[in-house]
Amino acid sequence: MKHNYAVLVKALLMAVVFLSLPLQAAETPKPEGLDHAIDKLEKPMYNAFIERYLVDEVKNLRTELYTVRAELIEKQVDKQITLADKSMTYAINTVTYFFYLIAGVSTLMVLVGWNSLKDIKQRVNSLANEEVQRIASQYENRLKKIEDELNKKSSRIKQTQEEINTTNEIHSLWLRASQENSPHNKIPLYDQILDIRPDDMEALTYKADAALQLGETLWAVSLCNRALQLDPENAHAYYQRACAHAEAQNFDEALRDLEEAIRLSEAFKWEAIEDASFNMARQRPEFQRLLHLED
Question: pTM score, two decimals?
Answer without folding.
Answer: 0.47
